[in-house]
Amino acid sequence: MIDRDLGELYGVETKVLKQAVRGNITRFPEDFMFEMTKEELDSLRSQFVTSKEGLELQQ
Question: How far apart are CA 36 and CA 23, in angstroms?
Fold first, then answer.
């Protein structure tokens, strides 16, 4: 689940959710949240676009 989904689930903006977690980090398990680097995010977006394009070609 990504931050956007959690924000929607709890009815808060993503930014507010992240601030709340960071402000109370000791209340959460160490692996509760992680942030991707720009390179990781770019790679994920690239994979998604490639996958989506492959689906469009099959149709």
Answer: 19
